[in-house]
Amino acid sequence: MKNLIVGCGISGATMARLLADQGEQVVIIDSKNHIAGNIYDYYSDGICVHKYGTHIFHTSNKDVWDFISRFCQWYPYQHRVRGLIDGQIVPIPFNLNSLHSLFPASIANKIEQKLLDNFGMNVKVPILELRKKDDKDLQFLAQYIYEKIFLEYTLKQWGQTPDEIDPSVSGRVPVYISRDDRYFQDKYQGIPIGGYTAMIKNMLNHKNITVKLKTPFSKNMKYDRLFWTGSIDEFFDYRYGQLPYRSERFEFITFPYSRFQDVAVVNYPCNYDFTRIGEYKHFLNDQSDKTIVSYEYPEAFENGKNDRYYPIANDVNAELYHHYLSLAKDMLNVYFFGRLGDYKYYDMDKAVARCLELIKGIK
Ligand code: UDP
Description:
It contains 13 helices and 19 strands. By secondary structure, it is an alpha/beta fold. It folds into three domains: about 180 residues, 3-Layer(aba) Sandwich (Rossmann fold), CATH 3.40.50; about 100 residues, no CATH class; about 55 residues, no CATH class. Helix 1 links the parallel strand 1 and strand 2. The longest helix is centred in the middle third of the chain and has 23 residues. The termini are close together. The mean pLDDT is about 100. The protein binds uridine-5'-diphosphate (UDP).
């Protein structure tokens, strides 16, 4: 069997390895000049920099964790995000610590009690759900969080309000009735020591896998089975029109001092045109007398001008995607997966989980 995999990101590389482990011969191609897709990172001034923005591996899926752990050792990093809200740097997602940082004790205590009475401790409540509560104190809180944390950030990120985009998007960062400041509560979390590129390189380091970079897919290529992690509309020559995506522009700055901010990511929902600043040395505790940060500016994806980052979940796009999916269902021996192939806002672990499932159905 000639297996051709298009796209050398985490999805393509995972599938390559799964096939190779089964004794299959695999060729994996990518039009870019590097492996690892949008999790690509590189070292500069002794700091591991994520070229396409901050990436934190987190999962509660043991199979995924065990699979990835074959290719790296982990630095036990736990992600903490802060946001600049009303002049205070507070934990994001908004939690009980954020509440007490932003409000006088009398108000914070009253609201905390209401949250605990209504939901309980260590419970996650999507902002759009909290807004539905008819208690006036909870309404006040919900409106505050909606305006100060979600509204402008989401307008910058998606060009739409949290009410207009799919609720699952703002639901990724729920209000957390807890004192736990971490961004994720997954059982397994970490950053691969040496970086994601090294991890993907280990994954692809198998006698059955041939990697070809700077190699775009062409219809003349020969294969028995094709694994497509590019955008599904591209495969079908945009027959029904283009699936929309959001993209990002990163402005990287190296500062001649060792620390820029206290945590790896600080969000600026209501200030500036960027959404957040990432400082990379936090991830692996890299020691350097310099520091490298990135300012993140969301923008629309334009074919040929920038890269696809985020599928945009809404009813219109879902319908368009399903037109392509019905074409895909008629294709024998062509498999679509990954964030672009499935047009789904996968985290890294979900992309790997998808491959672990997909391989089961391939003879
Ligand atoms: N979000 C927000 N304010 C924040 C953080 C997140 O409005 O301070 C919303 C925004 O719509 C964002 C979504 O929640 O796109 C998901 O955030 P997440 O941090 O999961 O995005 P990612 O890291 O995948 O870009």
